Amino acid sequence: MLTIHDVLETNQMIQKHNLDVRTITMGISLLDCCSSDGRTLCKNIYDKVTRYGEHLVQTGEDIAREFGVPIINKRVSVTPIALVAGCSDLDNYVEIARTLDKAAKTIGIDFIGGFSALVERGYAEGDKKLIASIPEALACTDLVCSSVAVGSTKAGINMDAVAEMGRVFKELGELTKNQDALGCAKLVVFSNAVEDNPFMAGAFHGVTQGDSCVSVGVSGPGVVKRALENVKGEPFDVVAETIKKTAFKITRVGQLVAQEASRRLHVPFGIIDLSLAPTPAVGDSVAAILEEMGLESCGACGTTAALALLNDAVKKGGLMASSRVGGLSGAFIPVSEDKGMLEAVGRGSLSLEKLEAMTCVCSVGLDMIAIPGSTTASTISALIADEAAIGMINNKTTAVRVIPVPGKDVGDTVEFGGLLGHCPIIDINKYKSDAFIARGGRIPAPMRSLTN
After folding, report:
1. pTM of the predicted model, to two decimals?
2. Beta strands 156-158; 144-152: pairing state
3. What is the residue-wise DSSP string for 192-232?
């Protein structure tokens, strides 16, 4: 039963420590939009997205106002377009991306995800067309986000797709170079992609889900840091318990918002994603939580252990609070979006190699990292392969969202604005991986894939 103390505590979390609902994301199946005629397909997609999502933004604003909980983004995720468009007569899927962008703007949402392909085991014709369309599609649209799943614990890693995605990042960076390669911020490559992730750029509506649902992503790094300030010097058992209790409270806020959004929008409740997603704002940093545990700077020895504790405790607290916890749920480490991470990079304590080690225990992977524009496609592909291997072997989701900025090198800084923040160009290993990537084929699934 809620007490006045619980109410006051939640108010403090919101007003002083940046607790927010980062996103309400409506998932929409487009499987019934399929058509062999491209024009009919685009019309079907536009009509369904605008019909289902018509009241999403207003509902989010109403709930935020009535409950006093900030809801930062309203988004839509759709069935991977490579599946939906596979039988169409379209030579490429750029027009579908424009249709999604138009629909998103019509209903007033912040982003629409699902310009996606799932190619862990190989390509269908629709997958090939979608991946080839990504650079132009993301360069000519504002709100469309794209993802490609190249590996999984069950399937291994499709190295042909990995090689292709390195070239896609390079081409997209060039096409959006006047915006410091901002188009790359809307593209992510996955291993073990999940079907119910409400966060962009990787959100898509999986085919095992129903016709529609509404999911909520809650974030509160500042709340967790404030809670840890009260247990300075205490053993890690106490630290873990404190994070669990805090995550429980944060998840309950998300549960309340999700249930209300589901009721008002007349669609099923999907999941709560309890991910500590930082922002460039002061007091909203995952790095600050790790430093509160006793590290002089994020990236110091002990950072990976601290992040492992944080991620595990967040998941345990969320699972106690709701039976609908899903998505990624844990801690994100997007460099450009986290003030503490940026400061750590600036002082030299946090490198790309340390970030890769941290991805072994966090929710996603190498996220929102700006790299020199001279970085080759094969080097980017090799970076993707490394992250995919971490996900495959550890049976967890990993991802890569890197931004090769044309004309920029180590020592330069790029400004993306808003929640995407800014980022110094991070140094990347100069030794070549060309011959490695040129092999192609597939890295086989590990022993742990044999679980039946």
Report:
1. 0.92
2. antiparallel
3. S--TT--SSSS----TTS-SEEEEEEEE-HHHHHHHHHTTT
